[in-house]
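[AMINO ACID CHAIN]
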Amino acid sequence: MSARDPLMTLEVFDRQLSRLAIATAERSDTDIHRSVGEVLQLVRDHLQMDVVFVSRFENGRRVFRHVEQDPARPLLQVGHSDPLEMSLCQRVVDGRMPELVRDVARLPDADALPPLPFRIGAHLSTPLVLGNGEVYGTFCCFSLAPDETLTERDLKRLRMASEMTARLIDRSSADSH
């Protein structure tokens, strides 16, 4: 059975995501931060991606807030930022790029994409929207190699994880006020 078996894994993924939501309902900000990391790890494991991250859009920049990746081969750094307009994240949010891309090099406008420090193969990204409707940033993942096996179900998993993460961020914000 593949890690992205259409029925079994979605059910397991949903159950694990729900368990995280329950476990953090009455926890501290530190626990919530750890839970966001667990959500990212869950996505990375289920979708078999090299990197999963949560970005925040601040003052015209994309800031990496949470990153899950192979520590032996780090590609992104928490706290690093770059101009929002030079990110794939902004393109997804404003509709210039689809949320699910099996091979970035095959996009019709691939040559017009912002320059990247490494080649991205497959890319999934969805806006991370807080409870008040504010677009916080994006929940993204990518692999260095293309992945033709990615499906709309995989995008659904990413969206579920993004919604869970938004609730965790909302909870953390409410606790700090």
Observations:
- The first strand starts at residue 51 and ends at 58.
- The longest helix spans residues 152-175.
- Strands lie at 51-58, 61-69, 81-83, 100-101, 123-129, 135-142.
- The two ends are 46 Å apart (CA to CA).
